[in-house]
Amino acid sequence: MSAPPTVTWSAANARRMERQFLLTTAKPGQAGPGEVVDAMLAAQAQVLSAAELSVGLRMDGATRQDVRDALWGEEPSLVKTNGPRGTIHLLPYAQLPLWTAALPAVPSGPSSFKPEARVTPAQAEEIVTAIGEALDGVRLTIDELSEAVVARTGPWAGDLVMPAFQGMWPRWRQVMHLAGQRGALCFAPDRGRKVTYTRPQDFGEPMGAEEATRQLVRRFLYAYGPATSHEYAKWLAGPPGWASTLFASLSSAGEIEAVDMEGEAASWVVAGDTEFPAQPAQGVRLLPYFDAYVIASHPRARLFPGRAYERALNRGQAGNFPVLLVDGVAAGVWHQRRSGRRVTVTVEPLDRLSARQERGLAVEVERVGEVLEARPELVVGTVGVGPHA
What we know:
Elements: H1 9-19, H2 33-40, E1 43-44, H3 48-56, H4 64-72, E2 78-82, E3 88-92, H5 96-102, H6 121-135, E4 140-141, H7 142-153, E5 160-163, E6 168-170, H8 176-181, E7 186-191, E8 194-198, H9 209-224, H10 229-236, H11 240-252, E9 256-261, E10 264-270, E11 284-287, H12 292-296, H13 300-303, H14 308-311, E12 323-326, E13 329-339, E14 342-349, H15 355-372, E15 375-380
Parallel strand pairs: 14-15
Antiparallel strand pairs: 1-3, 2-3, 4-8, 5-6, 7-8, 9-10, 11-12, 12-13, 13-14
Helix pairs in contact: 3-4, 5-9, 6-7, 10-11
């Protein structure tokens, strides 16, 4: 048996950035918001403004309005719903048949709720069906949706058994994320200050679960490989043993192959996808909260070297703080504060920037202002986020 191909982490990192429009932004006509999010696989969107910035910064000349039009326009290319890990994401509308088949197929762990608060598998199915029926062709607030779900199921679904921020939520809401992952629910434009929900329309039938599961692995490895099965499991919040078995099956079928990435154990790429850039990543980028690139890229110690591991991560977890990337690695943190038409971007480099890097930072701050439709001001100083702020 021949030895697996070798690749440096630097080359792998450059390829990940290249494929996600972080080395060269997408030109007009090359890729719109839907295609850009598809290159990222998904854009985490608990904070929608951060997702707008993630997508907009990957597109030449784009603004947050371009992302909003792709999300809320008459012909949407994005949908806001529950994605990987059950968290809120922007997903490409065209890929919903894949996502709505692959995500429900990820095995879930034991329920975190007390036995008396849980729903049975049959009740979960009943709730998801009720959500889809209630939202078909309409937009409802959470209270309106709750009434509709209880009316279609029974009083048991409305029992206040879920601990919430300052009270209790009804039982049915514990499977709300599953309804999103299965295509029965997505976000709609706000009604004043109230969030509304609807059902995504006309996206087609979900794929077969097995093919969707295998295809999602291949797409993940194309965007973020080389990667281990454990890293894939972490990205999906799935069981490591399940992911290991899945990767072994794909390897046996010749769909993925192992590479040697500087001694990293069991790193995988799509079969035949072994071409990597000859040059390391260069340039300065500002990535906002929950950017897909920092969440899915590994090993953490290579992407967040030295002091960045403590300053830009939250106990090893990426995405909690906006990150300054210099030549492809985390080199600081940043923060933006908006006041009217002005946005102040404060950047804290962990090491002194060269003159080239300072010019690159100034250009990137201008892009932040452009995406946010505001006049930017750059301040280099201490940022009040993260450990040791």
